[in-house]
C-alpha cells in the first residue's frame, strides 16, 4: 500500500499516539496492582503492552478493517478482570488460581473470535445489532467513558475528596480544548486535542512540579515471567464468563465499524470484518501470556474522528508506530507514561462528547411513541442505573455472575438485543400510526 504522508497527517499521527497512550496507560498498572505483581513485572507488562498495541493498530489500519479505528486493551475485559480478581480475593480463592483461569479463558475466547469471525458469524451478529442496538451501545459507552473521565479530572485524593486545584486546571484544559475546536479555523481546530494535551501537561508541571501523573514503576528491571497472573488452569465458571464477554467484545467491533461506515461513506465488507476479528483474536490469545488485558476495537475512536475530521488511516499507522517505539525504548515510554491522568481525562472528556452525536445520528429519522420509546429508554436507563450504584450491591450473587450483572454496558446491550428480538416493534409502530 502506498502511504500518503503530509505534515497534517504526520501531526495527526502524533495526536493518535497521545490518544492511544491516554486510553491504555492505566490498564497494565492497575492489573499489576490487582495481582500484586512486582514492579519489574509491571514494567515489562507496560512495555509489551505498548509494543503489541502499536503493532495491532498498524495491522488493523493496513490490512484489517482498514479504518482509522484503534485496537487496544479492551475496557470490557479490563473491568471483568479487576472484578474477578477482587471477588476471588474476598472469597478466599488465590489470585494465582483466578489469574490462571483467566489466562486460559481469555486465550480460548480469542480463538473463538478468530474461528467465528472466519466462519462468517458476523452475519448473525449484524442481524442482532440493528441500528437501535448500536445506538444503545454507543449511548451507554459514552456515559461509561464520560463518568470515568470526569472522575479522572477531579484529581481524587486518598481521602476520597477532589483536589480543587487539579479540578480547576482540568476544567480550564477542557474549556481550552472546546474553544479551540469550536473557534479554531482549518487545521487548528483539527488538532485541539493535541494542543490541549501539550499545553495542559506543561501547565500541570508548572503548578505541581515533580508530582508526575503516572504510577511509579521500574523501567524494566527483573526477569520477564510468562503467565504472571498464575499458571494456566481450567476454571469452567471463568470460561463461561470469558465466552460471554468475548461475544460482546465482538459486538463492539460491529458497533464501531457500522458507525465508521457513516463517517467514511462506504460499506464494510465481510472480508474487512473477518480480517479485523482475525487480528484482534490473535492478539487476544497472545495477551494473557504476558499478563496483558485482551484486545478489542475501540468504538471510542469515533469521538476522535468526529472531533478532528481527519479520517486518514495513515495517521493511525503513524500513531501506532510511534507508540511501538515507546515500547521499544523503555526510558522514553516511561517518560510519556507520566502524562497526568487529570490532563488526559480533561482532553478526552471533550473529545468523546462527539460520540453522543454519533449515537443520535444512528437512529436519525426514526420516530418514537409512548410504546416504542421503551426500546431505547429501558436498556439505556437500566444500564446507566447499574453504572451508578456500587458493585457491592451484587455481592450476594454467585462470584462469576457478579462481573456481568454489575456491568451496566453489558446488561444494557443484552436487554436491547432481547427487546429487538422478542418484540415486534414494526407492528406496534403500525398500530400507533393507525391510531393517529
Automatic annotation (TrEMBL):
The keyword Transport applies. It is a multi-pass membrane protein. The chain crosses the membrane at residues 12-31, 43-63, 75-98, 104-125, 132-156, 162-182, 187-204, 277-298, 335-355, 376-401, 407-426. InterPro entries: NCS2 (IPR006043). It holds the Pfam family Xan_ur_permease. Its main location: membrane. It is found in: Membrane. It comes from the Bacteria. Keywords: Membrane, Transmembrane, Transmembrane helix, Transport. Belongs to the nucleobase:cation symporter-2 (NCS2) (TC 2.A.40) family. PANTHER family: PURINE PERMEASE C1399.01C-RELATED, PURINE PERMEASE YBBY-RELATED. This is Uracil/xanthine transporter. It comes from Paenibacillus mendelii.
